[in-house]
Specification:
The protein is mostly helical and 259 residues long. Helix content is 39%, strand content 2%.
Length: 259
């Protein structure tokens, strides 16, 4: 009996050790992305890897439009290359470089970045504008609340909870948006959705609600980001009741139970 038991333990151990390469959740060779290294055409690469989030022509996707001269004027090529290659932690932006587990070679990442600037940049569109910095020091929450109400409240509500453009303090939205994404949106707006940029312009036209307001400066933008970020929840999603404060139901009361 002892011999059989020892053999059984050895067999089970061997099975578990041998199964390490196919445990649930671990990618197999078939799951790894296929790298088609011969593709260099910008439009093909963009359609294959980027259009699902950023739109077929760099606009009209759920993520930031890249077909935006203002964004390409404040973001340099190295920054965008790093974002595409390495992704952005705690967001839906994945890493695309092969050495990061993605489906693109370093040359293909470069081809995409060069293509964006070749097809979508337009220095004339931002000529003479005093452009904010893409990144800056963290701002302050209290002044950010006031600045948001003044500049953004007419579309999103003074408290950010609604208005005609929807809530921007929704925990789910904030969980999916990094501080940098919020800053980029405030600076550039959404050229495809009519959201005005930091200076109040959308599609080359001044937003009627911003006509009397000066352009947002770096500090004001940082303050708005700080106020928005202050609404993040540690664990966004379904609010569950605190079971420690729930009163027992009658069915759980032993005094009501019949012997």
């Amino acid at each position: 009996m002892r011999t059989r038991f020892t053999i059984s333990i050895a067999m089970i151990t061997a099975v578990f050790i041998g199964a390490c390469d196919w445990m649930p959740g671990k990618p197999t060779e078939a799951d790894k992305p296929v790298i088609q290294s011969t593709i260099s055409n910008f439009h093909t690469l963009w359609t294959t890897h980027c259009s699902g989030c950023h739109g077929a022509d760099g606009r009209w996707g759920p993520a930031r439009p890249m077909n935006d001269p203002l964004y390409l004027a404040i973001a340099n090529k190295q920054y965008v290359t790093d974002v595409i290659a390495k992704g952005v932690n705690h967001t839906l932006m994945p890493a695309f470089a092969a050495d990061q587990g993605g489906p693109m070679t370093s040359q293909q990442v470069k081809d995409v970045v060069d293509g964006m600037w070749e097809h979508w940049s337009n220095p004339a569109a931002v000529k003479g504008m005093s452009l904010p910095k893409l990144s800056a020091k963290p701002g302050a929450v209290a002044p950010g609340q006031k600045t948001f109400a003044t500049y953004c409240g007419h579309c999103h509500g003074a408290d950010g909870n609604g208005g005609k453009a929807g809530s921007v303090v929704n925990p789910t939205f904030l969980a999916l948006s990094s501080d940098q994404a919020l800053r980029s949106a405030i600076i550039c707006g959404r050229i495809d959705l009519g959201m005005p940029n930091y200076a109040g312009y959308s599609g080359g036209h001044m937003n009627s609600k911003r006509e009397t307001l000066p352009a947002l400066n770096d500090k004001q933008i940082s303050d708005i980001v700080a106020w928005l970020a202050s609404h993040r929840m540690a664990y966004p999603g379904q609010p569950y009741p605190d079971t420690n404060t729930l009163e027992p139901s009658s069915s759980d009361d032993s005094s009501n139970m019949t012997p």
